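> @MW can you paste both from yesterday?
MW: sure, first one:
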Amino acid sequence: MSHVVIIGCGIVGATIAYELSLVKGLKITVLDKQEPAQASTGAALGVLMGVISHKLKGKAWKLRQTSIQRYENLIPELESLTGRKIPFNRQGILLLLPNLDENSAPEVNEQVTKENWEKLLEIRQSQGWQLEIWDIPKLKNICPQVDENDIVGAVYSPQDRQLDPTVLTLALVEAAQRNGVTFKFGVNVLEMSLIPEATDVVANLCQKIVTTQGEITADYFVMASGLGSTVLTTQLNQKLDIRPVLGQALQLHLGHPLGNSDFQPAITGNDVHIVPCGVGVGTITDYWVGATVEFPSGENEIPPDKELLDGIFKKVIAFCPELAEATVKRTWTGLRPRPEGRPAPVIEKLAGYDNVLLATGHYRNGVLLAPATAYAIREMIIGE
């Protein structure tokens, strides 16, 4: 029986653990220095922008498509196994198109042209997906809460989704436990050790890891450790440089749904999300809004910038003025793991190692790409 150790229990690590738990003949152990969903997962808004993205082909699109498809049956599968209700918004994503001028960046202007979106719509239809382009009258009729000033229309993606990343991660952990996966929280990985006999002819193998609770040997080690991946890969002389990018978000309490209570999609525009909380679970009274994108200066220190968060709030009110009446219920921050000098995410074998697998550096798409990442890791281990 092959032993797989997964380092990290955010949504990526938890999804890998669950998907591998469905494979016979694997012993699976998950380690994390914290409780599950405490790092970037706990700060994510869970907006799954797949169909509406401008990724048209290749790996980037395949990952998105695979994940969107898997989520449709993964959520009910987990709810049945655990008895947990997972907030999963099936009412799609509505992208507001701003009215840009000649001073706007050329690539931004190009993205919002009607011709550009019509081309994307045709491509998605050929791939079996749906998109709709709405003019202002249709937008106002369906979503009266949206202010049409500075907006030229909207793109509606009925097959994209939004979910609660923390609730989902906890459900994945419980389901994986029921399938025999061992989780160890509050455990730090101190050292990764090579097999002494490894030569230049044969790829190196990681023999064991040393943790604060002792040594663990395994056949495969999966790094789903986000920002912690840099230290671990450095110990194996193959440093993967992952940098933090801070995000701040707000939970607003309005007390009632915006617009049509029967139609509550996630709304996005100008890189700001407005997410109704608990769609399908209860009455909508709160909205998540965010998130900022703040890069480190110097030694990876990123103090939250209140002005940037205030700016997010102003953009949200510009789109939906009624939210000016809401009270701020809470604010929170999270650090996204962004690979330096290469595209996100990093899903591959660590260079020179046959049994160290990387599932990290997802930056802003960890929740979106978790299922596809788990499939890729499974294929590396069992070949299918």
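MW: second:
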Amino acid sequence: MQRSSFKTLLVCIAAVAVMSCGSGRETSSKGTKRETYWSLDVPSFMRDADTPVIELVGPKVIQLQVGEAYVELGATAIDAQDGDISSDITVVNQLNSQIAGDYFVRYQVTDSSGKVALEQVRLIRVFDDQPAMMAKRPHGSTQSHLGYIESLPANYGMDETQQYALLIFNHGNGANAEISGNDPDLALDQIIAGAGPAWLQYTGKWDATMPVITLSPQMYGIGRGNEMARLDAFIDYAINTYNIDPSRIYITGWSQGGFVSFLYAATYPQRVAAAVSISGGLPSNPSEAPANICALETVPIWAFHAKDDEVVSFNSSVRTIDYVSQNCQATVAPKLTLFEAGGHFIHHAVYDLRAMDNGSAGLEADPTRQRYDISLFDWLLQHQTE
């Protein structure tokens, strides 16, 4: 994307998103700013030939019953200059085997020249009858630069060779880190409260049989200009931490998160297998489109919007889908589902599937556009990058 057009889009996001929310109500963007959540440098989670390399000993995922003892298996670390520095590894054990949940054991090391290794993580799944459906990963508790909500498939880790799709959910403005409080753990509650996948996971209504790892990162300071690079770095972090199939990375979001999802897909189209925006679209006016909007022609996209949305006009989604359909060479026809009514908060019913044809939400779709006749999760899983 050309820098000038990208900045224009981010200004539009800032103007529109301040009216939207992530907590189920309209929210001001004023609040305590926490620069520690959004440092100026975009981190890198790619391996560097000059830094030590950590390798886990034994499985990357361990299953434990509640109360069962954990036995540390350790790790090795090799550095190009210092050789074997395994004895210098620091192990950060976050496990509480008395409470069901998914826990990290983190392995860190720094060589004699100050080069820091890419951290490696062992996941400990502590369960009674079944693994936990979600975990909160507050800022500072992982190597990630963003706090996030995590949800893993029920069978995650049972087969060490199995890779899973990655679904990124981008929240609305009300859950932004700068307005959600000073406690990193409590701040993530705003993502949960704002509905979407995290709410379904929290309430036990998520389908954990889907072969999908779902991560809901907490954004901060939308409009600063480096959101896409930060989100891309977060995906790098996810690939380093979890067993992810890089050809099946999906991105979705509501309101501000819908804008961010389509913007990311347009910025990194080679990385996104499919994208879904709800009450978002792209923040462009009728006579202007982002310079690289046709980058979306290689990404299957689906927009949902209600015609009576008073926060983000449904024309935002209409213009996006129509522009790609009429001016680009889309490899998969872009989809738009327009509900006759439902307001800004249709994401509740879209994600829990009550908005589907003849669903209990009672939402009526415009017959001149696409029907909601297939679960958006089933639709996403049909696609992968080459």
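> thanks! Residues 3-17 form the longest helix (15 residues).
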